[in-house]
């Protein structure tokens, strides 16, 4: 079942991706953002626009992130969404950096929220 969210006046739709693709994307998430707990926490928490911005800024200022890898990752995360029957394309929809970060966090939440919440819960019990 698809999840939808209105961002920047546009309704974005995102479906879960298959397991192999999801595993690869999750590993990229951790490689790009260096396992940043703020990033993972905000994805798990289904944060609003401001929360997505804060997590992205935190990770980009507090880790030595490769800018090319980060842009490619955000582009791919945005590409998991659609707008109507069209794919979401960074630079078109979403057209601004603000919207792009929020759409990426939305897509990552659709893919990984349940997994991260379950994993963090088990870690807290240990």
Which sheet architecture does the biggest sheet show?
A: 4 strands, antiparallel
Distance between the first and last residues' Cα: 33 Å
C-alpha geometry: globular
Number of strands: 4
Q: Unreliable runs, pLDDT <50, ≥5 residues?
A: none
In the sheet with the most strands, the strands line up as: 1-2-3-4
* Strand-residue proportion: 5-15%
Count of DSSP H/I helices: 5
As a percent range, the share of helical residues equals 55-70%
Helix-strand pattern, N to C?
EEHHHHEEH
Mean pLDDT: 92
What characteristics describe this protein?
5 helices, 12% strand, 4 strands, 126 residues, four-stranded antiparallel beta sheet, alpha+beta
Topology:
Elements: E1 3-7, E2 10-14, H1 19-32, H2 37-44, H3 49-62, H4 67-78, E3 81-83, E4 86-87, H5 97-125
Antiparallel strand pairs: 1-2, 2-3, 3-4
Tell me what you see in this structure.
- The protein is globular and about 40 Å long.
- With about 130 residues, it is an alpha+beta fold.
- It contains 5 helices and 4 strands.
- A 4-stranded antiparallel sheet has the order 1-2-3-4, with helices on one face.
- The termini are far apart.
- The mean pLDDT is about 90.
- It has one domain.
